[in-house]
Amino acid sequence: MTHRTDETLLILNKHRNGVGKTDFSDKLIKYYILEPEASLSLGENTILDTTTHPPTIKELDLIFEAWLGDDILEIFPCFFVTQKLKQLIELNNLKKVNFELVNPTKSDTFRELHPYQKLPTIYSLKVLGKPKCDDFGISKENLLIVSHSCLNVLSQANLNHCDIEEIMI
After folding, report:
1. 3-state secondary structure of 52
2. DSSP reduced 3-state for 45
3. 105 near 43, Cβ under 8 Å?
4. Which class for 66: exposed (0-12), middle (13-18), buried (19 or more C-beta within 10 A)?
5. What span, in angstroms and rounded, lies between the C-alpha atoms of 106 and 114?
6. Tally: H helices and E strands in the chain
7. Cys-Cys with 59: which of 33, 47, 111, 156 at CB 3.0–4.6 Å?
8. What are residue 34's DSSP bridge partners?
9. Among 8-12, 58-62, 140-144, where is mean pLDDT lowest?
10. What predicted TM-score, i.e. pTM, was given to this entire model?
């Protein structure tokens, strides 16, 4: 079932009842595909259950190979956020997402290239919503789908290396 705002329903009802010819194309609900910075890898101590798709992580060994500073990151099949972005999400009461603290490590290359760079506090983004319905959702292709209002909140953080594609329903 498609989620519609009160404003969208009012416009649709006016149009159905013949009250004016309203152009409501700009009132369509917008969602976005996010493809975050992928500067992580799964370490050798990661345990995956590959009997499901996407695989389920039983034990996570997360390694930073690099980091360009974005507040949202990914490594298939997971998404991660910094503490800054987690707090923005919570402060703005975005729904259908939980968090789990992660203890990542730096790769040897990362330590060589950035010996003094501190890693941010990282949380696994546990998406519970339905794509194109809730604030957060995961598509069948394991793409992160967010609502327009969610993107407005996420945009307050650093998404400089996150590809964002608008989709409309």
Report:
1. coil
2. coil
3. yes
4. middle
5. 10
6. 4, 13
7. 47
8. 144, 164
9. 8-12
10. 0.80
Question: Taking a C-beta distance cutoff of 8 angstroms, is the pair 38, 152 a contact?
Answer: no
Q: In 19-163, which ranges are continuous DSSP H helix?
A: 83-91, 108-113, 148-154
Q: Is the peptide bond before 55 cis (omega within 30 degrees of 0)?
A: no
Integer Cα distance of 161 and 84 in angstroms: 17
* CB-based contact 136:143 (threshold 8 Å): no
| Residue bearing tokens 């707090």 | 87
How many angstroms separate the CA atoms of 140 and 48, rounded? Answer: 19
Strands 30-35 and 47-49: unpaired
pLDDT tens profile 106-124? 999 999 999 999 999 999 9
Q: Which of 58, 84, 61, 49 is nearest to 154 (CA)?
A: 84
Cβ(41)–Cβ(63) under 8 Å?
Answer: yes
